[in-house]
Amino acid sequence: MSDDLERFMMNQPATPDRPLQGKTVLVVEDSRYASEAIRLLCLRSGARIRRADSLASAHRHLRVYRPTIVIVDMGLPDGSGADLIRELAMETCRVSVILAISGDDGAHAAALKAGADRFMTKPLESLAVFQQTVLDLLPQGEGPKGLRELPSDVVHPDEMALQDDLSHMAEIMRDDPDAAEIGYIARFLGGVARTAHDEKLQIAADDLARGGATHTELRQRYDRVAGLIEKRLSERRAL
Q1: Dist CA 113 CA 82 (whole Å)
Q2: Alpha helices in 65-198 (DSSP H)
Q3: In the chain, where are the structural domains located?
Q4: How far apart, in whole angstroms, are the C-alpha atoms of residue 172 and residue 181?
Q5: What is the pLDDT of residues 30-75, one digit of tens each?
Q6: Are 14 and 60 in contact (CB under 8 A)?
Q7: DSSP letter for each residue of 43-89
Q8: How far apart are the C-alpha atoms of 157 and 189, rounded to whole Å?
Q9: If residue 10 lies in a helix (H) or strand (E), which one and from where to where?
Q10: 3-137 maps to which CATH number?
């Protein structure tokens, strides 16, 4: 999209079928697969989207432009999304909407305590739920005027983005990660598995994320997750 066309589209009023037209979204999410789902939701809603895959990247974006809506994953490779949410919530010129997302329902309380306007559990795939959540939080008068029919669409991210996520984790897991890195791997894969509706990988990732395991038990859980990732990647290479 050219700069002139982009400026033109951003200055257009919201409409019932594009209720977030004119809005900008910064999604802070390390999973390409989850980010792709949000990109599709924003695209079909008329919003412009930029992505940051870490806290450091998010800060670089925020030094350059001010989004209308910020969507923050609670588990990021260089820290907690709650820290960024807290910073955004305390700013004098606060962004209109701060959404926290996670594949872990247990992050709900921490997200709201940090200052998020709403918490949404992955997967984010219903266009109606996404649009209504954001519209409910926007200042009065910033949404479309008049009645609108709720869409029934469900987005389906590109499978290549899922393969990229799994390949990235497989590479990290081959480098003998420490306990902190294992915790991140488990949370990341739990969110990816929920977005992909992969129940077996989700259960294995959740088991890996649980504390209290002996070294042997942890190694068994780790190897189970690693094996599932390799199996998923082999299945995709065979297609």
Answers
A1: 9
A2: 81-90, 108-114, 127-137, 159-173, 179-196
A3: 3-137, 159-238
A4: 9
A5: 999 999 999 999 999 999 999 999 999 999 999 999 999 999 999 9
A6: no
A7: HHHT-EEEEESSHHHHHHHHHH---SEEEEESEETTEEHHHHHHHHH
A8: 16
A9: helix 3-10
A10: 3.40.50.2300
